[in-house]
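Weekly modeling sync, notes
Attendees: S.R. (lead), two postdocs, one rotation student

Agenda item 3: backlog of single-chain predictions. S.R. asked that every request posted to the team notebook include the full sequence so nobody has to chase files. The rotation student volunteered to paste the first one in as an example of the format we agreed on. Action items at the bottom.

Example entry:
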Amino acid sequence: MKNNLSFESSLAKFGIGLFETIKVKEGKVNLSLHMDRIFNSIKELNINTNYKREFLESEILNYIEEHNIFNKALRLTIFDEGYNISTRNIPYNDKSYEKGFKLNISPIKRGNSILYKHKTTNYFENIYTKNYADSNGFNDGIFTDMNNDILECSMSNIFFIKENVLYTPSNDLPALNGTTKRRILEACDEFNIKVRESLINIEEIKNFDFVFVTNALMGAMKVVQIEDIIYDKKNQLFEKILAYLNES
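Predicted structure, as returned to the notebook:
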């Protein structure tokens, strides 16, 4: 495992690499979806690495045990010179879930790049959008494409609810298919919850009753406001999904 890199690294020079952020809960971790995604990206993007999945999974589990990691965010980074495992605190707490998130619209409009469907280390657009949201009193920002269709947030996927139907941007769009999003869609299939994966234009957001965002660290977080539009703070369908995430 590398704790430094040279300026000749493609990560340092060009931001070329992949990473996964994985939640360690009470010393336990579910690696399956994360490892599926990163190794699919290694193949599709032709990332220069010879590490096997079994080796990296073993390294992660050993790191958790050796460093006594209990409730943390663990990051695996893979790049041309090697790999790195690190941890940080999870930034969400009971107060976060009680208050919910407020979102604004990112000033960055995205084109149709295949890179957006992979969790690459070239993350400047995401960081810029998150900082833009923070500086304007919001928790995160929503990326849209050139047609003003919603893609995702800088750190999460987004869902909308209207009359017990769950809406989320189509997986065909240039956005990251998050591991928690995949779990939610599987749960909806199990519970016979109607889901529409489609184009959602930014002009349509006023038509929904409830909004929430998801990622591997937060699970699911209600959204109480997008720009100047206020949403319901409670929803039975959301509570059902939240219970599934907390139990699984």
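Discussion: group reviewed the output briefly. Residues 94-247 form a domain with the D-amino Acid Aminotransferase; Chain A, domain 2 fold (CATH 3.20.10.10).
Action items: rotation student to repeat for the remaining queue; S.R. to check formatting next week.
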